Structures are given as C-alpha cells and as structure tokens.
Amino acid sequence: MNVATLARLAASRQIPLLLSLGRGLVTPVYRASFLAAASGSGVLRRLAAGPGDVDALAAAAGVHDDRHLLRAWLDVGVRLGELAVDDGRYRLRSRTAKALARPGNDAVAAALEEVARFHLPVLLGAPAMAADGRRLSLGDQDGAVIARSTRVVEPFVAEAVGRVLSRTAPLRLLEVGCGSGAHVRHAARLNPRLTALAIDLQDEVAAGAAANMAAWGLRERVEVRRADVRELEEQPQFDLATMHNNIYYFPVEERAKVLERVRSLLAPGGRLLLTAPCRGGNVGMEVLDLWFRYADFGGPLPHAADLAAQMEDAGFTGVRARRLIPGEQFRAFVGTNRATASGIDVEERIS
Ligand SMILES: C[S@@+](CC[C@H](N)C(=O)[O-])C[C@H]1O[C@@H](n2cnc3c(N)ncnc32)[C@H](O)[C@@H]1O
After folding, report:
1. Is the entire prediction scored with pTM above 0.85?
2. Please, which pLDDT band fits residue 324 given cuts at 50, 70 and 90?
3. Ranges of CATH 3.40.50.150 domains, the chain
C-alpha cells in the first residue's frame, strides 16, 4: 500500500464505519441467514450425519441442475466459518451450526428460519408497506416452519395443559390451530382416556399434524381436520378447548366472537385453556407483533387484561391469567363455559 492510499484511508470517516458495521452488524446477519437457509434446505440435517460432497448436499436440498450455484453458496458458508471443506467434502464447523443440526434443537433451528424469513422482511418492508398500503397475508408465512418453531415454548404449554387436565376421566379435547399437534400428544399421554379433535386452518399444517399423530400411535384417539374454527360445525361436546399461540391470527375486534364460538362447542362447565405471548415481551415478540400488525388478517399481540376481558365478554366465567415464563409475557388464560346443561347460562339463571 503506498503512502497516498494510506493517507486516503486515514482521512476517510466512512471506511472505518463500514468496517465496524461489517463486524458488528452485517456478518451476524449473513451468518444467521446462511444457517437459516442451511436448516430450511435440509443441508444442516444432511451434514449432521457426516461430511458430504456437493452431490450429496444437492440431493438433500433438492437441487437437480444448478449444483455450481449450490457450491457457491456453500463456499460462502465456509467463508463465514459455519462450514469447512476438505477435499471437496463439506462438514459442520461452527459450534452454532453443530448445535442447530441436532434433531433435539429442531425448534430453535426453525425459530432462526422464522426470524430470517419473516421477521427480517417485515422490519425491512414496514415503511414501504405503511406508505403503499400493501399488507402481509397468510401465504407470506410458511405454516410448516411456524408449526416447528412454536415448539420452543412446548415445555411451558405442557405445564399449563397439565394443570387443567383431568388424568383419569374420559375427556373430549378440541385443539384449535394445532400446528404440529405436540400439545395434543402431551394431553393424550397425561390422560389415556382422552380423545381429541385437532383442527388447523392451513392444509399443509393439518397434513403434518395428521402424519405426526400416525407416527405417535395416536391416530385412533385424535382426529385431525383442516378447518377454520369460525366455521366448525360440532355439537357442544368438548370438556376442554385449547388455543395455543394463535389468538393474534384473529383481528382484535373479532376475538370475543371467536372465543364465543369456541365456548359454544364446549359442554356445560367445559373449560378453555388459551396460551399466548402478550404485549411487552422480548424484542422477538415485539417483531412478531409487528408482523401481525402488518397482516391483512390477525392483529397485534394481546394485552393480558384485554384478552381476559374478551374471554369474559365471550361468556367464560372465573377467568384467570398466569405467567408461564418468568420475566416474559407468555401467559395462560383459563375460563369456564358458563352455559349449563339446560342451555340457560348461569348469569341468566341468577337474574
Ligand atoms: C403459531 S401457530 C401455533 C401452532 C400450535 N398451536 C403451537 O402452539 O405449537 C398458529 C396456528 O393456528 C392456526 N390457525 C390460525 N387461525 C385459525 C383458524 N381460524 N382456525 C383454525 N386454526 C387456525 C394456524 O394455521 C397455525 O398453524
């Protein structure tokens, strides 16, 4: 480097700023995006089984023709330090890549995909969407990825399910928006006499849940159906209804009506257990809130007090809310169907 170049560098204010952005901001975004794509494409899972050449990784990722393009992307992964390559065979290198590749961490890998594929676009696109009126739709999500990523809170939902579920009596469960079906599996394990109807709005999600039920040996006890709860025609037969992580898929002004509809499917004295991230949580939850504010369906994450009031408006009594994760705004809400066997609701009878 000659003296003139050195002098230009020393005088530049932009180059040091760019270099510091590169280290502090840009490289982490590149790494996150690369790992999210490695997870979503099946490359991480393939490499968890051992090193593979570009042909093996192309087969895992469903790449048929443009292997040179896949190789270029893999080589950026090497440059970022996520992968290494020896004699044309790629392997996992970073601790993060190795951890995400473990099957037990699939929900975390899916959460990273959710951040890269849905959270970053809404952060990038919000001002333009606010300007031109464009909105996100359900098709801008990937239901299968969301069904996997929401499993990060599975232990906390499981604890809430365990608190409301009778262990011995025969029980009919309705799960609304079942995702992977993991919470129904947990309920079925707790009560061997439980049978369930699990519904989900999205075809591919319902199909995934049905496949899971079969793999878990629950096909006889759990019916999985693609259905919109707002149109579900069923007798008021359910002892327990559960809605986990989906109240924000409904606009605020529709929520009491949806909850009333769920109540109408409950047997007298039946209960609703609803779990949801509420406003004021960690920044990831605030970006989720942003995503749903920009959606042409759904709405913001609920304020805990508003959601409890909506349950009461929908005819639930004894509504109680509880925090499920210390320091976080992830909460469980439980209420009881006030309708009695006579069909007259408790408040009418009293008055
Ligand atoms: C974030 S996912 C949560 C999945 C699962 N409950 C869990 O906690 O792992 C929300 C799910 O609710 C479903 N959903 C949204 N609106 C629905 C509706 N109107 N009827 C039935 N399911 C719905 C979505 O299709 C999606 O799979």
Report:
1. yes
2. very high
3. 146-350
Cα 244 to averaged position of ligand 1 atoms, centre (Å):
8
Distance 146 CA to ligand 1 centre (A): 9
User: What whole-number distance in Å separates Cα of residue 309 and Cα of residue 9?
Assistant: 62
Q: Encoding tokens for residue 134?
A: 């464009």
Q: Is the pLDDT of residue 89 over 80?
A: yes
CB 246 within 8 A of CB 254: no
Which of ligand 1's atoms lies nearest the C-alpha of 179?
Answer: 4
Domain 16-134 bears CATH identifier 1.10.10.10: yes
Instruction: For residue 269, report the distance from its CA to the centre of ligand 1, in Å.
Output: 25
Residue 348, pLDDT above cutoff 50: no
Amino acid at 197: L
Q: Which CATH class is domain 146-350?
A: alpha beta
| Residue 5 identity | T
Alpha-carbon radius of gyration of the chain: 24
Residue 92 near residue 34, CB atoms below 8 Å? no
Is 288's C-beta closer than 6 angstroms to any atom of ligand 1?
no
Using most ligand atoms within 8 A of CB, pick from 159, 185, 200 the residue to mutate for ligand 1: 200
Which of 249, 273, 330 has most ligand 1 atoms within 8 Å of its beta carbon, as the pocket-test mutant? 249
